[in-house]
């Protein structure tokens, strides 16, 4: 059953096309047992998306359990997930229930799944395949835990698989549906809504603290001036929503007046970035042509020289779309032929159709695909001597 999310109940703030699309995707898969990988840069709110999946599912009354795979050593992560028996290692003074067991009839959220060691990936795969949970220090395995697994990462798992850094069998087990959380710089229309939300939150906390402990008359009533809001919208937010939240909290705590101005932001934010010049556009076009030639003539793959740099923010979305344009011109609009041209799929591979579908879905999710109207315009504007 598809679940339509009620916006007034959503924890996710924003009315940009990217956020509306993400909420729609969550509504489609929330009330199912489908495994989901949430992809996005640090600070974009991947855990919030996982909570939305949980809250809008039939598991909403069950536990939502979070495990940060990047914050624990291999030994501690194994104990955290599967539990341990008393005396199994130094400091294990009592039996401990693992988080998989704690998430029974609920959702287990594995944050930064890409940081798991190969051994831990194998243990997780065993649980996903047959439900087997074995505590550290125990010879007995237990089954029967009813858990939905949702993962998140800021890394490109597909590229990690090709680099032998992530198990391919685990990748395909986890990556049934991918939800992409766009960085804040790509949905700047959401910044005023987010800023107002955090202002209300920290103003309320300041007023509560003032009532309990005393404080100045201006505490808890801060608002942003027009120039301050404009300044927030000009900034590119490398730390994404988390960075915006921290700055609003700092402003409410330190600016002792009702109106926060752009001058008050000067110490918190670097100088505005200059708009891209026409020279930059020429460089981008040249970069796309070089990448295209490296794939077509030198046999390098799209995943390695285009997609991985894009996910690491070394290439822009415009760079990727320019590469796609060149590929579609070469194949006259045939995405499947382009996938072969870019070494995304091999014609003889039994999984070529699956690989192609995944390639096309990923392009669309990241808004790197060209729709029919864009491609038709591209063909109409193509030089006649080509």
Description:
The structure is a single chain. Helix 8 runs parallel beside helix 10, helix 12 packs across helix 14 and helix 14 packs across helix 15. This protein has a five-stranded parallel β-sheet, sandwiched between helices. A two-stranded antiparallel ribbon has the order 3-4. It has a two-stranded antiparallel sheet with strand order 6-7. It has three domains: 176 residues, Rossmann fold (3-Layer(aba) Sandwich); 78 residues, Helicase, Ruva Protein, domain 3 (Orthogonal Bundle), CATH 1.10.8.60; 103 residues, no CATH class. With 386 residues, the chain is of the alpha/beta class. The chain starts with 16 loop residues before the first helix and ends in a 6-residue tail after the last helix. It is built from 17 helices and eleven strands.
Tell me briefly what this model is.
The chain is an alpha/beta fold. It is built from 17 helices and 11 strands.
CATH domain class name of the largest domain: Alpha Beta
Quaternary structure type? single chain
Structural class: alpha/beta
Fraction in beta strands: 5-15%
On the 0 to 100 scale, the average pLDDT is: 82
Distance between the termini: 50 Å
Number of domains: 3
- Helix proportion: 40-55%
Can you name the CATH architecture of the largest domain? 3-Layer(aba) Sandwich
Count the beta strands.
11
Cα gyration radius (Å): 24 Å
The tally of helices reads 17
Q: How are the strands ordered across the major sheet?
A: 2-5-8-1-9
**H and E order:** HEHEHEEHEHEEEHHEHEHHEHHHHHHH
| Main beta-sheet annotation | 5 strands, parallel
